[in-house]
Design brief:
Layout lengths: L1 H8 L3 H12 L4 H8 L5 H40 L18 H15 L3 E2 L5 E2 L1 H4 L25 E2 L5 H9 L4 E10 L10 E12 L5 H16 L4 E8 L2 E10 L16 E10 L1 H7 L4 E9 H9 L12 H4 L4
Parallel strand pairs: 1-4
Antiparallel strand pairs: 2-3, 4-5, 5-9, 6-7, 7-8, 8-9
Bound molecules: 3,4-dihydroxyphenylalanine.
The site of 3,4-dihydroxyphenylalanine has 11 residues, from strand 8 and strand 9.
Length: 329
Amino acid sequence: MEILEEIKNTDSLEKLEELRVGLFGKKGSLAAEFARLKDIPPAEKKEFAANLNEKKALLQNALDERFEFLKSAQMEQKLKSEYIDVSLYNRLTKNGALHPVMETMEKIIDYFVALNFSIEDGPMVEDDFHNFEALNLPKHHPARDMQDTFYFNDGSLLRTHTSPVQIRTMMQSKPPIRIIAPGSVFRRDYDLTHTPMFHQVEGLVVDDKGKISFANLKHILTDFLQHMFGEVDVRFRPSFFPFTEPSAEVDISCVFCKGDGCRVCSHTGWLEVLGCGIVDPNVFKAVGYKDVSGYAFGLGVERFAMLMHAIPDLRSLFEGDNRLLEQFR
Ligand code: DAH
């Protein structure tokens, strides 16, 4: 039978379906042949019908076989075209990472949070009262020259330090207070070690009169700095800040030369890393606190990051250059 050959040679499921409809459809050739049955003389009817049924079975068989064959060939084709080589190396994989300044900030925060300090926030656009006046820096006080400030026309300013958060916290709550205040600060400054925006973490602890001493401050900051920088020596140098009395600047032994003297520490063997002191009574007066004692400290996060990662130019941290940032992943 020619049609059997045709079925065997069909190369697509669509063509096979056409053939099937041509044979088995309502108007197909088999239907026509069965229709002829009624015109066949009774004597030949039996044989005619038997032949026709055999033919029908043969054709059905051939169609089924071809269908299976084409179907599995199609599946194979599909599997081949959708093949995924799971062993292929993905060259685009790149994990992000925290910016070194944020990573340093988190390490600082983690230390104090573990000691039950809570985290306070304050506005970056501050007013004169919170940024200066309440911190014992009255108008025309020469200490205001220490900070070059960005002022707005209405007299408000970009905070020059995180210390105003001390004031806001004390005015909003009662002692005891145990907070750190991390955040961005702004100064008109630009060189190897200064950018107009940088980050500070402020600390403030206030409790009843007589409960907070300089010894407490010394102990916690020494432990903190050794947590950050490893086995370093820590020394407290008398200094001046308007909002603390007495005040100190804190040095660590140089992390680069281990105290022998090098360019980074200007051959002193020491690196200054933060300021601190016992809260000045005038600050407590400004926020209406009586019969309390407290200590405070403030540090620059970028300076910590530079010393921890030996970064020579602070400005490079803010240029968004991936070649630099990738070194800290
Ligand atoms: N606010 C100071 C600054 O920006 C840092 C500082 C020094 C904060 C001593 C303090 C402190 O709380 O007690 O340079």
